[in-house]
Amino acid sequence: MATVKPFKGVRPPKDLVEKVESRPYDVLNSEEAREEAGDNEMSLYHIIKPEINFEPGTSEYDPRVYQSAADHFKMFQEKGWLVQDQKENYYIYAQTMNGKTQYGLVVGAYVNDYLSGVIKKHELTRRDKEEDRMKHVRVCNANIEPVFFAYPDNEVLNDLIMRYAATTPEYDFIAPIDGFRHQFWVISDDKDITTITAEFAKMPSLYIADGHHRSAAAALVGAEKAKQNPHHTSKEEYNYFMAVCFQASQLTILDYNRVVKDLNGMTSEQFLDALKKNFKVECKGTDIYKPTHLHEFSLYLDGKWYSLVAKEGTYDDTDPIGVLDVDISSRLILDQLLGIKDLRSDKRIDFVGGLRGLKELKRRVDSGEMRMALALYPVSMKQIMDIADSGKIMPPKATWFEPKLRSGLIIHKLE
Known about the structure:
Distance between the termini: 25 Å
Number of strands: 21
Radius of gyration: 23 Å
């Protein structure tokens, strides 16, 4: 069963939140972070993208860069740009995109739950990325950015959240660039805190939606600290890391599409003919065509859109992996026809996710940069949870969650 606890959040004062908050570290590069931060010395990018504190071209893995993150975190607190709450609270973080709002509970998630599999993952992590985030957590002695969890729908928690949502939030702003609304409430009432802890204790599992590397890094640093402490009691703050937990039914997963540079030596006619072995192929004309259901794909080639519907027998509805459209397209199109064996390393393929839409696929093919594009029907949260429950791992580049969590609304110190 899941263990969570409230914590003393480190947060910007209400009048500074829009100066401090930022996009997460992994959705933009160093130069974009440098440009977005501009001359704003309060920008969280000085902590989460600390290479911007040095001359352009400085490696984000330079030891001076990590130390700069810690120095700036300390300075932000000294200047009052980040202030720690006096008592342990839970928090609510709401995001509104295209008129739809999702409400997350900000909690301290238990390191042992990650290590024992109560917190379930659906993606592989890379050791180099884990180590980068571990260095950042170690040097700051804090989880500067939250991870993104899902939990099974819970009526008690939903009623509690809706009660707070009817009150004035602590923070309420429209973020630049994405244009989404972000709201934040503090849950300091002891009775409500007890209720939240008790309801999570009834849940057999929590699910990582986004932030697998951050989750791994936070848990591994917590385990490190436990091993290094001869007086470890399991009650220390480092036994927990910061997560925003959303009801599974509220989450929006967008399609995560593919663009490919060549047809592996085939002409367009040969490629379309080869597809007919495993797919019903239908030309849809020049207007953008989006897949309408599971096992349907959209192909963009030579200025035309095609519907590809996987034939019976090409997938296994009883296998949580085999039923996925990312698996079907990887096996029967990318691997079998185009010779793309490793989605993580092959330079002939790229991925277009999130809000860019199918216009971006069309643009990249029409420009001549890419030869063809493949649009997929989005993965569902139920599919992700089924895979995590089965102990299996999703194929790469399968999910794109939107909106992304903003960073800088709250931070969790490990001491």
